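Two proteins follow. First one:
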Amino acid sequence: MSARDSQLRYGSVSIGFHWLIAALVILNIVGALYAGTFPRGDETKAFIFMLHKSTGLTILVLSIARIIWRLMNPWQPLPLDLSPALRAVARTTHLLFYFLIIAIPFSGWAMTSASLRGAPIVWFGLFNWPKLGFITALSDSAKRQVGGNAHAMHETLAYFAIALIVLHIGAALYHHYGRRDQVLRRILPG
């Protein structure tokens, strides 16, 4: 299998990005929902959120690389028998995913950077990830405002992502698997 995409199939790099980012996003959503079941100050909750932040920043870096790769590779053609409305939905869904895999982790990074507690962002316990300097330089009242807005955006976009993921998986299984076209097979590994 070629690393680069072709008109018939995604290459190994695009397939790797797709499935790795998808797995990390789902893992991060499940982890955040699970962490919410623990009381504030619980060590397990703190550990899960350390993993959540680390995974989110990893998703951000991988997503930037994925978008750069996408810009260097052609969009896969959609089946000719898809209606214009379904074509628009398919392309819009992909663009929304690209937006979300950048905006959700970035809003989380902004939220953590605005924290008044000053706790470091520790990437998987290995090193301190830098905070966003333009946010850490703000006054405490401005940090509260930015942190609150970033938290609201992070949470709202995450719930939107959950809905879009369910729609995407359902549409892929119903439409492409049910129709037996090659669209779903182009992104499957192997």
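Second one, unrelated to the first:
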Amino acid sequence: MTRRRKFVLLVSCVIVLCSLLVIPLLPQPKPDVASAITKAIAFFEGSMEPDALLFLDVMHRRFEISAFADALQRYDQVLAEKSPDQAPIMRVFRRIADHENVFQDGDLDFVSWENDLLTIPALYCDRWGLSASYPESLVEAASRGGYLLTHALLAHIWIQENGCESPLSDQFFEFLYQANAGLINEDSVVSDLELEAAAFLQLAGQGNLVDDAFIERVLAVQKDDGGWLMSSDEPGESNWHPTVLGLLFLLHVEYPADSYPPMLAQ
């Protein structure tokens, strides 16, 4: 090999090596919110998960997502097939999608989960009013944190949308907003609880409390199938619960507005 060919070969190797070092440093395209929404909508194609369907109905009414136009019909189909011990709670929560919903005598006897015991009185407060002990229950739930804190916020949203008199002070509800925002950590892990806090803050008109960096993290951990994991740092398959929350959150991010149609069907 001549000296000239050796020189050319050396220069070529240097160029290739430099390109390998530079490529990772180039800015990578950021995930797109609209694309993430499209993928998440596709995740729920044909879904018959009843709790998800109620949220899909909310998204249809609030954002006119045509793919979810039949969410209530699908919900009723699932309801008709449920066993006698599963149908009652579904009949009770059906009011999210149908203001005139009527459930059967005895259905409330099947309500036992403490999150449901907190939110159902708010869901029907315009019919039943709120008990004298309810404000204390709301404060206790908020103080316990976690999913009880997020459901205390959901109850507050439903109380407002039903036009019921707020049982607590504005100072408490400001605490409620800030405490839910505090559930969203600054690390790279995105959890189901964080997505719930972010989505419910958007429903409450407090989306400004969610940092833009969280949006980037949500986009970064979306799975190829359009869904999200219960916790992004754990292996597993996409789950409907964080996915419906992630989609609800991103829809508010992509379509900001001063006001939206209510979450509860009117």
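SUMMARY FIELD: Confidence is low (pLDDT under 50) at residues 6-28. Residues 113-182 form one domain.
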